[in-house]
Amino acid sequence: MQKRFLLDTMKSLHKQFKKENPETKCSYFYFTKNRPFFVVKPSADARETCLCKTHINFAYKTQALKKQGIIQTDNLCDVINASVCDNQSKNCMYNSCNACQNKTLTYNENKIKGVIKYSQWIRKEEVYEKDGKKMKTIKNVKEELSDRIANFLKSYEKDLVQFKKHVFNIKVQFHNFRVCLNKLQPNEAAIVVDFSENYNCKYNEEVQSHHFGGSRKQISLHTVMVYTHDPDKQYKPQSFCTISSSTCHQPAAIWAHLDPIIQFIRSEHRSVDTVHFFSDGPSTQYRQKQNFYLLCKKIFDYGFAASTWSFFEAGHGKGPADGVGGFLKRTADQVVANGKDIANVDDFMKHLNNASKIKLYLIKEEDISAIQDNLPKVIPRLVGTMKVHQIFTDNEHYLKYRSLSCFCASFKRGFCDCYNPQIYKINTNEPVASEENIVPLYPDLSSDDEVPLSSLRVLKDIQNTLPRTSFYQSVYGNYPSSDDEDTQDSSANKENFAISKNDSFIDGTNEAQPSSSYKDCSSKQVSVDDFLHVFVYSDNLKKKRYSYVCKALTPVEEDGEVKVVFLRVAGKKDARLFRLDERDINYVDSEDIIKILPNPTVVKKGLRVYYQFDVSIDVFEK
User: Fold this and answer.
1) In terms of CB atoms within 10 Å, which of 90, 364, 426, 522 comes out highest?
2) Domain of 251, in residue numbers
3) 441 in a domain, yes or no?
4) Do 466 and 565 fall within a single domain?
């Protein structure tokens, strides 16, 4: 029988049953005793906790319109179908179809007046007090909002454009994942990878100070599903999990965790020469330039001829690897419940190594450090990283990338020319070739393409004519549009280019200074611990603008924001000396980043720590 969840208490349901069946004698005890076995009480653990923020926020808005009587349905598929010619066409779903580009939904005109209330998941700054000091933190909270219906419909139409792209990307990525598996060749292996949520070590019996304190250790679980060719069943799945006491989830850790799995494939499946990776796409883990570099280098070091890496759409990366992590953590909890301790990674390995068919491998912190130490300090950025959903390589000096995955070719699958793939030069030891499609390390000033302002060698006589793009675009860029993609966004961005005479380029002044240290530092992607010069606004209307120095706590996230901790000017004469304000933590929109600053010198005065820059920074603090 299909499981059914109770949506009310048994007492209320018994009363309702008596009202509907007054002639039937049924006591409360008899009513509860004869509850069908497949009707169960919902539990807090079974609730949805990994919903896509894009999906749920758009669904809340659609439900609000339906409740107000402005539209006739709150089914998201029906909303999309009403706004496009064909929901299977990329042109339609990317809003570049001439027939439905300007098509709008049908609204009840009699209801478009007044105010509408709706729910949204938003990031909100909260202030709390700790040890007599006020601290700020950013939390994701669900809030009830209201707006005038006319304004609400404008924002809803904009959200619909982005939502259609989001849905199309989801379908295409999962479709190609299934195509890859169903037609797996003898020379291919498909690998699905994902970091499971860290496991909290437990003792069977714990003292109070350990249970409520910060003494509990965590274990990283990198779960993997490997699919190889099977003539009888199309493919053969095998489960793996690598565990480590290091909680680092960056590219160096990824490839340290992948090493024993790839070694297993090389020894057990010697005919495999092409590997297809699948994962979600967080910018701090899989979808970033360090991982692209390691893919190009490592895959050939292992002796493979080619490889692809596909990223599922943001918020929709759940796959078979997640089930591996869930099983292991439930099994570990059962081991603890049976009277044993799992206090560290060695205990985890000891008790779970032979508990199932999942192969476990232990990864040491030294393995991760060895890969991290061998990474080059400067890796050329890939323009449009956040819009890339597949990269592939058959040459260790470069790879190709495109907006969506494709495995249509019967020979050398995943290496076709669909979706206009572009070349990304990855070899940091050689100068970048002058081919049109290769991403340059430094932009050409004569080009019309968008370039990061911080990378330009600004000349004083052309200072007011150079194009300025947002920092987010300078890091991730606009994905090169193919013939069937929407090109209006890029043209609209070019119309918004402008340079303010008050903008600082090198040292917070209007004069250009050829400092190579700034060029090298500011031309890379934002990383953790980078020092940034940013704009901060007094309110949402951006009526008054300030500028601060801050330190990045995260890279640029998928929503285009960076978590930072702010610094305050400590010098009396100029803004070279700063102190860290650990209580002032917030998110900064990547569009408001002016530039990445070179690392300052750490100066200690007694117990206080200061950061001193070589030049004065043009800050305007509140």
Assistant:
1) 522
2) 190-206+216-378
3) no
4) yes
- Structure confidence by residue, pLDDT tens digits, 331-341: 999 999 999 99
Residues 109 and 243 in one domain: no
* Closest C-alpha to 419, from 486, 487, 482, 489: 482
> 3-state DSSP: the chain helix, strand, coil percent, rounded to 5?
30, 25, 45
Q: Which two tokens stand for residue 26?
A: 């049924």
Question: Which residues lie closer than 8 Å to 269 by C-beta, 6 or more apart?
Answer: 189, 228
Instruction: Please identify, among 353, 378, 403, the residue that sits at the C-terminal boundary of a domain.
Output: 378
Tell whether the model's pLDDT for residue 462 goes beyond 60: no
Average pLDDT over all residues of the chain:
81
260 and 347 part of one domain: yes
Mean pLDDT of the region 412-420: 90
Structure tokens at 585: 């933590």
Give the count of domains, the chain: 4
In this structure, are 194 and 318 located in the same domain? yes
Residue 354's pLDDT is: 86
What does the longest C-alpha to C-alpha distance in the chain come to? 94
Question: Residue 438 has what DSSP assignment?
Answer: B
Q: Kindly report the three-state secondary structure assignment for every residue of 47-67.
A: CCCCCCHHHHHHHHHHHHHHH
Cα separation, 536 vs 193, in Å, equals: 38
Q: For the stretch 134-162, what's the b/e string if a residue is b when 16 or more beta carbons lie within 10 angstroms of its beta carbon? A: eeeeeeeeeeeeebebeebbeebeebbee
438 in a domain, yes or no? Answer: no
Tokens of 245: 């006491």
491 Cβ neighbours under 8 A, 6+ residues apart: none
In a domain, 211, yes or no: no
Minimal CA–CA distance to 525: which of 352, 358, 343, 384? 384
Q: Are residues 502 and 578 in the same domain?
A: yes
Q: What is the dihedral of CA 468, 472, 474, 480, to 10 degrees?
A: -110
The amino acid occupying position 587 is Y
Same domain? 516 vs 544: yes
- For residues 489 and 496, give the distance between their C-alpha atoms in angstroms, rounded to a whole number: 11
CA distance linking residue 385 with residue 281, whole number of Å: 10
DSSP 190-245: EEEEEEEEEEEPB-SS--HHHHHSS---EEEEEEEEEEEEETTTEEEEEEEEEEES
Per residue in 96-114, pLDDT (tens digit) is 999 988 888 989 888 888 8
Q: Tokens 């990304």 identify what position? A: 424
Residue 319's SS3 state is coil
Amino acid in the structure at residue 203: Y
Torsion sign across C-alpha atoms 580, 586, 590, 592: negative
Q: d(Cα 442, Cα 380) in Å, to the nearest integer? A: 9
Answer with the one of 313, 345, 378 that is the final residue of a domain. 378
Q: What is the pTM of this model?
A: 0.69
Strands (E) in 396-486, as ranges, are 398-402, 422-425
Distance of CA 140 to the CA centre of its chain: 15
Contacts with 505 (C-beta within 8 Å, 6 or more apart), sequence order: 453, 458, 463, 512, 513, 595
The partner residues of 123 in beta bridges, in order of sequence, read 140
Cα dihedral 9, 15, 18, 19, rounded to 10, equals -120
Those residues whose C-beta lies under 8 Å from the C-beta of residue 196, and which sit 6 or more positions away, are 221, 222, 223, 241, 321, 322, 324, 325, 326, 328, 329
> What's the pLDDT at 540?
60
Q: Is residue 256 part of a domain?
A: yes
In a shared domain, residues 96 and 73: yes
